[in-house]
Amino acid sequence: MAAYAAAAVSFARAPGDAMTIAGVAAFLAASAFAERFPVPLEGTDANGVSLGFVFAVAGLVLFGWGPGTFLYATAPTLVGLAQRKPAIRTVFNAGVFGLVGTVAAAILTRFPGGGIVDELIRVALAAATLYAVNLVLVSAAIAASGSGGVVDLIRSNARWTLLPFLMMASTALMLVVLWQRTPYLFVSLLGPLLAISLYQRSTHRALDAVRLSLTDPLTGLGNHRHFHERLQRELSATDDGTPISLCLLDVDDFKRINDGYGHPAGDRVLSHVAARLRQGGEAFRLGGDEFAILLPGVDEEGALTIARSIVARAAEGEFEDVGGITVSAGVATFPHHGRERDSLIRLADGALYWAKDHGKNQVRLARADSTHLTELRRHAAAAEHGTGLRAGASLAHAVDRRDGYPGSHSERVADLAERIAEQLGLADEQLELVRLAGRLHDVGKLAIPEELLRKPGPLTYAERAVLERHPQLGHRILVSLGLEQVADVVLHHHERWDGGGYPGGLSRNEIPLASRIVLAADAFDAITSDRPYAGARSAFEAQREIERCAGTQLDPEVVEAVLSALDGHAVGV
Questions:
Q1: Would you state the pLDDT for residue 246?
Q2: Nearest to 307, CA basis, from 266, 247, 380, 347
Q3: Which DSSP string do the residues of 261-328 spell out, in sequence order?
Q4: Whole-number Å distance between alpha carbons of 294 and 486
Q5: Over the Cα atoms of the chain, what is R_g?
Q6: Contact status, residue 72 vs residue 101, Cβ threshold 8 Å
Q7: What are the pLDDT digits (tens) for 189-229?
Q8: Residue 327's beta-bridge partner residues?
Q9: What is the three-state SS of 160-172?
Q10: Does the predicted TM-score (pTM) go above 0.85?
Q11: Is the dihedral of CA 393, 394, 398, 401 positive or negative?
């Protein structure tokens, strides 16, 4: 502050001629405006750079130590006061700028002006002094706040700011030359400088908006959209067989944490896991407690090592209210496990489910012959009638116990779906597929809160959105078990003939025939069963309702098959 005060006093005692006073006033106004609207730069650890640097360098060269240091230190001081920044910060900045201006002015006294080369040297010296000293002091101040080491910050800030400051130094040289030729010409620089500042700010805002659209707000990791774009970009850019590994992770028993300790505790857990993921590779939060790490150039062994390290680090965290946590992970690698984005995701997801189903807190590598596929795959492929049912029995029973239907809803849907398929003349292999899909059509409800499934009143918009995720959730579960054909049927069993269904909005023959059959069988059983929100209706009423929905919700041909299948069978009321 002493250097700033001394420069202000010196300028007040010897302000110079009217042109000098007018120049200092004009430069001060322009510099204050530039300080008020700094230009943001990608990668800097400060709030951006100020075009006031141009007027500070030109002021020191043109007007000398007193006026130059005064305008250099006064502009940010006035802006700091106007914005009510902390007093200690404003005083610190004024002292730093006063000191830097004094150092630069002292160096300039050793190089008196004269020709154009002399002025070039003086501008270069002033700019280099202001930039270098400010870079060190600002980086030191940021480091003192705990944001990193001084040397690393200097390197980082220099890498991003050196070129802009060189450009501003050249602009300062133009300002000096114009002022020395005709002072009024300096106004011609204000327009371009203002345009540059506004353009850079608008560009930075646009980039921020793009970044926010690709970033998870809680953890700062890439979001679901960013993950899919990055994975596809990496796969598209790889044409030489270079491995790309994908690791999917899931927090074990996260619902228990949220339900038992509240969402703030859950958020702390997610942030803790995200911090561990950043040390492993390019990390993403896919939603809820699901995360992904993309590992370009890493084979499956390297990916397993990284995933195990992350699982171990995550388990090291202890939370005062929650206690310890664990995560499970699944790994798949291009091109060994798959060459397409979706197949890699499915395989990694299947490995993740295996890890969670077999003890949690572990990593599983996707393998075509892994034990979590063999039993159900064998049953799904078997020719003997009913073998597929035994394969899905445990999952179907688990759904029926949680759902709001009486008895075995899944068994009834499977039985009716098979009879409908027989009426349509489907082959034995398709009959088995339809029956198994009917048995497992609601398996995704295992991931839906039970209180939502049993809610007696109408669902809210948000609750319905959650419930309508069950086809996708069921698809994921069944794919992970190796039942891809059944999974595709389950995924689309809520699509409507008129295109108004979910999740894909498919219509007519775009919907797999097996899915259309399961939808009709599911609808009939829902109408004739007691549900939390509605009582059972008679079989006759259900048939009339099915007929009414032909051509809108249901395939008309399937509706005819439903009515034929019901003829001659005893149907409960």
A1: 92
A2: 247
A3: H-HHHHHHHHHHHHHHHTTTSEEEEEETTEEEEEEET--HHHHHHHHHHHHHHHHT-EETTTEE--EE
A4: 29
A5: 35
A6: yes
A7: 776 776 666 665 665 565 555 555 677 878 888 888 888 88
A8: 251
A9: HHHHHHHHHHHHH
A10: no
A11: positive
Strand 290-296 to strand 282-287: parallel, antiparallel, or no bridges (unpaired)? antiparallel
User: How far is 451 from 454, CA to CA, in rounded Å?
Assistant: 5
| Token couple for 233 | 């970009």
Q: How many CB atoms lie within 10 A of CB 412?
A: 21
Phi and psi at residue 26, to the nearest 5°: -65, -45
The tens digit of pLDDT for each residue in 326-350 reads 899 999 998 888 778 877 887 888 7
pLDDT of residue 198: 65
Q: Which amino acid is at 402?
A: R
- Helix ranges (H only) for 534-573 are 539-548, 556-566
Question: Phi then psi for 332, rounded to 5 degrees?
Answer: -135, 150
Say if CB 517 and CB 424 are below 8 A apart.
yes
Q: Determine the distance from the C-alpha atom of residue 65 to the mean position of all C-alpha atoms in its chain, rounded to a whole number.
A: 51
φ, ψ at 549 (rounded to 5°) = -85, 0
CA 265: distance to chain centroid? 21
Query: 180 CB contacts (<8 Å, ≥6 apart)?
Result: 62, 119
Residue with tokens 């599983």: 364
